Amino acid sequence: MDSIGKFITQVADFLGGYPLFFLLIGGGLYMFLRSGMVSLRRLPHAVKALREKSDAANGQISSVQALASVVAATVGLGNIAGVAIALVMGGPGAIFWMWVSAIVGMSTKFHEGVLAIMYKGRGSDGKPQGGPMYIIENGLGRRWRPLAVFFAVAGMFGTLCIMNANQLTEAFMSVFTTPEGVASSTALSAIGSAISLDNQHVFRLLFGITIALVVSMVVLRGITRIARVASVLVPFMVGIYFVMVLYIIITNITEVPAVIQRIFSEAFNLRAGFGAFAGIAIIGARRAALVNDAGIGTASIMHGASRNDSPVREGLIAMLGPSIDSGLVCTLTAIALLLCGNIDVDGVKGLQVAMEAFAKGIPGGEYMLMAVVICFALSSMFSYSFYGTRCAAYLFGEHRAKYYTWAFIATLVIFAIIPLEAAVGLCDLFYALMAIPTMIALIALSGKVRAAVREHFNKK
After folding, report:
1. What is the pTM for the complete model shown?
2. CA–CA distance, 160 with 53 (Å, rounded to integer)
3. pLDDT band at 443 (very low <50, low <70, confident <90, very high)
4. Residue in 301, 297, 385, 317 with CA at minimum distance from that of residue 128
5. What is the DSSP string of 437-450?
6. Looking at per-residue confidence, does 417 or 361 come out higher?
7. Which of 74, 129, 340, 451 could bond to 361 as cystine, CB 3.0-4.6 Å?
């Protein structure tokens, strides 16, 4: 198991290093400039687009529900555990590059939203569907279908909630149990002796089963139930988290300027050499990819199910996602961790660092953060199950996609048990593989997006 984990980590480190950095940041920057800096110039139009109504019947959910569902997926444990991992691995400077990735990612998400409506496809059941597989096949032509299949295969694995299940289990154990209590539990020992596992792994197994049962109650009802739950859950959990971090900032207000200064100064720190500088930038961009999903392709799957019939309006709404997750929530997390946390730890540490920081910064903060973490993790699992199911439906048809949903639920139990290093490596590996066909399609069709933008705003 250790050797497999190391191999996965090595492959993920290669693909998620310079190749992913140049693909997402370089490709995103190209689209940012070619679109006329849409993520900066058109931000007021994006906010205004949220209030517009669309009566088109060619879809399953509204544009706002699509955005809420995308944010429900991206505002997950990556915003807490992912930011903590970025700080541990790359220091405060990694956060600056997460901000850069957010601005670039907004432009990328804009292109995804536009193309998701422009090249909307249909499933085998006749319902309208979106995603890179349809963008590639309908936008680039049938001869590009192998690339669409490549994305769908990677998407089935990449959208498994590897880190969410793992880190949620870790968080619950660190807050509500002690190693001594787990080790001495008679009930866990009895179960463990029957299945040849120690008490800690038995606890993780049982908690993973609990997660799977809760998730199944939502995801088996389909996209409409997922969107309805996300529309309620997202504003609530982001609001609660904002209040918690605001308390930490106010009670440590004198230290905030020093924290901001560290983020900027260490982002461009060349004292350790260009390699260290590049490493910090790559770590920040890589964590941002796991946070906002820009260029990964998942957002276009959800926005493709929207009833909106205006590609540019859908793109404007889609680009708000990275501003919420990578811009707002990740910044809140980073400031809280730098004010109250200890990022100088050995190994890859994620949620544990965050838990300790919030426990120090707020009385009972670890319990409050645990409640937010549960909401974050579950909301991600709801949306990600839909992403993977759409990929499976594209490959095998609607009538077989339900088997993937059941497999998705089962894997939540498995990923609650495996080590964090392997979980992070798997997550990075499949995300990198999903990004390759997605970014090829977005860049190749960026001229279509530019023409649509010109036509849309000329009419306005």
Report:
1. 0.81
2. 33
3. very high
4. 301
5. HHHHHHHHTHHHHH
6. 361
7. 340
